[in-house]
């Protein structure tokens, strides 16, 4: 039985998260903007926030990252990235299902954005009950998705 856990990120996790981002989403970033290592490292240095990041562990091994923003009226899933070696094992489904359960308990919507070129993630989110609500970004490269829990 696989044990999926979350631990708080620290500044020491920065390089792991950068390498993870490159492995998990590099092809999608490259398809839209092109991958420039220096630009990507600079962007990562500006946006990496260990205080709002959790490291996903699988059987005690670091295997991904999760960033969730709890807003007054909604939960925003900012990032979920799973190392390709661990993809397809239900880890993302487990994590997102837990967020959907939390959204239901709190009576709040769950929102996220997915790149239009990331068809696999988009299909997962739709399968789990999120709906497309808008496209945005330069050239509408992102799909905003939302789950609204049923009224209590």
TrEMBL record:
<keyword id="KW-0012">Acyltransferase</keyword>
<dbReference type="InterPro" id="IPR050832">
    <property type="entry name" value="Bact_Acetyltransf"/>
</dbReference>
<keyword id="KW-0808">Transferase</keyword>
<protein>
    <recommendedName>
        <fullName>N-acetyltransferase domain-containing protein</fullName>
    </recommendedName>
</protein>
<feature type="domain" description="N-acetyltransferase">
    <location>
        <begin position="4"/>
        <end position="150"/>
    </location>
</feature>
<dbReference type="InterPro" id="IPR000182">
    <property type="entry name" value="GNAT_dom"/>
</dbReference>
<dbReference type="Pfam" id="PF00583">
    <property type="entry name" value="Acetyltransf_1"/>
</dbReference>
<dbReference type="InterPro" id="IPR016181">
    <property type="entry name" value="Acyl_CoA_acyltransferase"/>
</dbReference>
């Amino acid at each position: 039985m696989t044990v999926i856990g979350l631990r708080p990120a620290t500044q020491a996790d920065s390089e792991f998260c950068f390498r993870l981002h490159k492995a998990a989403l590099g092809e999608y970033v490259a398809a839209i903007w092109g991958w420039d290592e220096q630009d990507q490292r600079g962007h990562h240095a500006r946006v990496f926030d260990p205080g709002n990041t959790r490291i996903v562990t699988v059987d005690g091994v670091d295997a991904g990252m999760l960033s969730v923003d709890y807003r007054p009226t909604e939960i925003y899933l900012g990032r979920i990235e799973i190392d390709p070696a661990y993809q397809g094992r239900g880890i993302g489904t487990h994590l997102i299902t837990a967020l959907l359960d939390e959204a239901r308990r709190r009576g709040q919507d769950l929102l996220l954005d997915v790149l239009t070129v990331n068809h696999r993630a988009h299909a997962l989110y739709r399968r789990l009950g999120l709906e497309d609500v808008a496209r945005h970004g330069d050239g509408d490269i992102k799909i905003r998705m939302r789950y609204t829990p049923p009224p209590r």
